Amino acid sequence: MTMHMGRHIVYWLLVLSGLPWLAARLNRRKVLVLVYHGVHAGRAEPVLNFDGMHVRARRFVRQMRYVSRRYRVVTLDRLLEPSQASTPDRPCAVITIDDGYRNIHRVAFPILKRLRLRATLFVPTGFILDGRGFWWDRLRLIVAAAQRPTLPFRIDGTERLFPIRTVEEQRLALTALSDELRRLPPPRREEALRSLATALDVPPAEGGPFAAPLTPAKIRAMAEDGVTIGSHGVSHDSYLLLNRDALAHDLTESKRQLEQWTGTRVDWLAYPHGQFSADVMQAARRAGYRGAVTTIEALNDERRDPYALRRIGVHDNMTLAHFIVATSGLRDFVLAVVAAGTRRWSRAPAPQRRGVA
Question: Which option is the CATH number for 3-131+213-337: 3.30.390.10, 3.40.50.150, 3.20.20.370, 3.50.50.60?
Answer without folding.
Answer: 3.20.20.370
